[in-house]
Design brief:
single chain; alpha/beta; seven-stranded mixed sheet; globular
Length: 236
Amino acid sequence: MFNAINHTKKEDFSVVWDLGRRCTYACSYCGPHHSNKTSPLVNLQSMKNTLDGIVEYAQLLDQYRDNHRIIDIAYTGGEPTIHPAFFDFVKYAKTKYPFIRSNITTNGCYNQKKCKHIMECVNSTTVSYHAEASDTEKKLVIDNIKLMHDSKYNFRVNLMFHKDYFEECKELAEWFEDLNIRYTARPIGDSDNKKDLKDGTAHSYTQEQLDYFKAQWTKKKIKKSNTMQLQTKTSI
């Protein structure tokens, strides 16, 4: 169920919670360790009991610390929202444990009623944009990104740069920059293994595409450096 539990990190008590491997998409580059139709789903009561146990354990550890640690839970999958109990569960978590800081990594492919539910119950969202989706699915994602932006909700986008949809991704990146939406230009796969390249779980990019990534990362470093300098000046 969990990818990781970290209680040594100074900033918080961090849990990465895998809610299942089911997904609304069938991306060619996503292997069965991330998405499949056979992994079982845990029922709502078990999820509630598990969350209760996490909080109890974190609070027990907190008794022996000098400084309080925030409980940070990141929901992931597969696609977390495809779990039939997901929306009831996050409402339970928000109501019973409002002090928990929560995040969801999602493809954003659902109606705006569900998007609003997430904004109400989950502190922040990471939207993964996948260009292989249908036009109808991608419109849902874009509409939800716009809704989160207009609502001043805390979110960011992982823009998965598919080698065959590169121009589409570049146009989206420009739109995000115009709206000052935080995003990361993500290459698909980080392997040069021939098998990974052959089965599509990693992509082989042209030199022009690689240069684009390099420019993106350089720009990001400069922006981060400028922000840190501004913060330093402000604190003096």
